[in-house]
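Before going further, learn to read the protein records used in this course. A complete example follows; check for yourself that the lines match position by position.
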Amino acid sequence: MDALELLRLNLLSPMVLAFALGMAARFLKSDLAFPEAMYTALSIYLLFAIGFKGGVELSKTPLATVLLPALATLGLGLFRPLSSYALARRLLALGRVDAGALAAHYGSVSAVTFLAALTFAQALGHRPEGFLPTLVALLEVPGIVVALLMAKRGGGNLGEAFQEVLTGKSVVLLVGGLLVGALSGEAGMERVKPFFVDPFYGALTLFLMDLGMVAASRFAALRQVGFRLVLYGTLLPLFHGAIGVYVAHLVGFSAGGATVLGAMAASSSYIAAPAAVRIALPEANPSLYLTASLAVTFPFNLVLGIPIYHALAQWIGG
């Protein structure tokens, strides 16, 4: 399958089209809007389902198989905030607090980008490693903590921010879902499969439509913060994504698994990181970190990034 066919397949997926519909609705000033309760319910459902399915796969996977990828993912979790922080200081000439806020977002991970990459790889016939949701949880926390430590050198309520990250819904649902899935195993999955497997991608499609509206609403802020933020939000994911694909290749992942880990490394958070930054760095400018994460990096990864990481995975894997 050539690059244009891959791009066509990605662009015409229901999830990408739903995201585009959400953006179009906002640009056309439609009255389309999701109730806050529905957004909350969809995010809870998706995060728990990711963790649960990952836990079921983990229950069938020997520890020796997971250990090396887990260590490599932790290494990514330490490297990504450091490189994000350094680039924010040099390219954007930001102060320590705003650079730390950006690093927290680009050091964490987007669960929806993970799902989109997983769906893309499966649509191409790949079978990515089943324990990948475990790695989402491992990548989520260290990146935020390292970034906040860099930004808060010399003071601030780091302990409260750390607690916010660990007890926030994204970590609780992912880690909790993993434990529930690992303990209940395949037998437990069979009992809840009609709810957590078949409707999963429909719920994800609706969630992406809502994210499209949110991303479109940040475009006005994008004009204010400047073109260098667009460069930051596209070049940094490409750099992190290439490293993620290469690391996945080193630990023996399949092409599908390398694509997904590359997309995870390239993603930026918009659930856990904003909550932690609001507490730990209240003086940070949200127009910078929310606009870069939601209006630049997320749509870039959804439309172009994931096919690029797949092409890299195929090329590196031979």
In short: The chain has a mean pLDDT of 85. The two ends are 15 Å apart (CA to CA). The first helix runs from residue 3 to 11. The CA atoms of residues 109 and 136 lie 7 Å apart.
